[in-house]
Specification:
Number of strands: 3
Strand content: 5-15%
Strand order of the largest sheet: 1-2-3
Structural class: alpha/beta
Distance between the termini: 23 Å
Largest sheet: 3 strands, parallel
Number of helices: 3
Radius of gyration: 13 Å
Order of helices and strands: HHEHEE
Helix content: 25-40%
Oligomer: single chain
Shape: globular
């Protein structure tokens, strides 16, 4: 768990994602960031993480996207 007030960075700052990666001891390409806000995914994408947008908006211009959390398994390899 990363609490922005403790680390002094907030999403979408790439720094908060770098801290998370460091704590997980994982490279960014092995981490999937899932959120329902496009702007919060930007920082994760900027550090090289895979990203998925949860949305029910048909014309959202962001891919990949899912409607149900169970679909996230399609992105795990």
């Amino acid at each position: 768990v990363i609490i922005s007030s403790e680390v002094k960075y907030e999403k979408p700052s790439p720094k908060i994602y770098e801290i998370a990666l460091e704590r997980l001891d994982l490279p960014p390409e092995e981490v999937l960031m899932v959120d329902n806000k496009i702007e919060d995914l930007k920082g994760a994408k900027d550090v090289g993480m895979k990203t998925v947008l949860i949305t029910r908006i048909k014309d959202a211009e962001y891919t990949p996207k899912i409607k149900k959390l169970s679909e996230i398994l399609n992105f795990m390899d």
